[in-house]
Amino acid sequence: MTGGVIAAAAVYQLTPLKQACLVTCRSPMMFLAERWRHGRAGVVELGIRHGAWCLACCWALMAALFAVGVMSVGWMAPIAVFIAGEKLLPWPAAARRIVAVLMLALGLGAAFVPAEVPGFAEPDGGNARRRQRRRHAENALSPATRRQTCRCGNRKGRPSGFW
C-alpha cells in the first residue's frame, strides 16, 4: 500500500493539474493582485483560495510523507527540499520530473524491498520482527533457564536496572 501511495504521488507530479497548481503557487503576487478583496472577510477568502491552490500542489507529496513514516525527520527533510525545489528553482518542469523519478524509485523500493529503504517505518513498527527474535532467543534457552527467566528477560530474583 505504501509503495502505491508513493508511486501515485510520483505520477501526480507529471499531471497538468500539478503544473497549473504549481504556476499559481510559484507566483502568488499575480494571484493576490487578481483576486484581492477588501476587509477581513475578503482576506480570509483570499487566504482560503490560495491555500487550496497550495494544497492541490503539494497534497501528493504530503500523502507520500505520511506513507513513509509519520513524523520521521529523515523523510520530512528530503520532501521539504522537493517542495522548495519545485517552488523556487528557475526550471520548474525539470524539478517536477526529478521529484517524480525520485518518488517513483522510492515507491518501487517501498513496494518490493521495504527493508532496504533507509528510514522506512514498517507498518507495525518492527514489533513483529522483535517478537520473533525474542521467541527464537527464548527457545534457545535451556528449560531450567527458561523457568528462571521472566517474560521481560530478567532472571527471577534479580531487580531490573537501567543497564
Keywords summarizing the entry:
163 residues; mainly alpha; 2 domains
Strand and helix layout:
Blueprint: H1 2-12, H2 16-26, H3 28-35, H4 39-68, H5 73-88, H6 92-112, H7 127-140, H8 143-148
Category by helix and strand content: mainly alpha
> What is the element string, with H for helices and E for strands?
HHHHHHHH
Helical region count? 8
Overall pLDDT score:
77
Assembly level: single chain
Instruction: Please give the number of β-strands.
Output: 0
Shape, principal axes of CA atoms? elongated
How many angstroms separate the termini? 39 Å
Proportion in β-strands: under 5%
Q: The biggest beta sheet, please?
A: none
**Helix proportion of residues, in percent?**
over 70%
Domains counted in the coordinates: how many? 2
List unreliable stretches of 5+ residues.
none
Give the radius of gyration.
24 Å
Structural description of this entry:
- The two termini are 39 Å apart.
- 72% of the residues lie in helices and 0% in strands.
- The protein has two domains: 2-116, no CATH class; 124-163, no CATH class.
- The longest helix is centred in the N-terminal third of the chain and has 30 residues, at 39-68.
- Helix 1 (2-12) crosses helix 4 (39-68) and helix 2 crosses helix 4.
- It has helices spanning 2-12, 16-26, 28-35, 39-68, 73-88, 92-112, 127-140, 143-148.
- It has 163 residues and is an all-alpha fold.
- It contains eight helices and no strands.
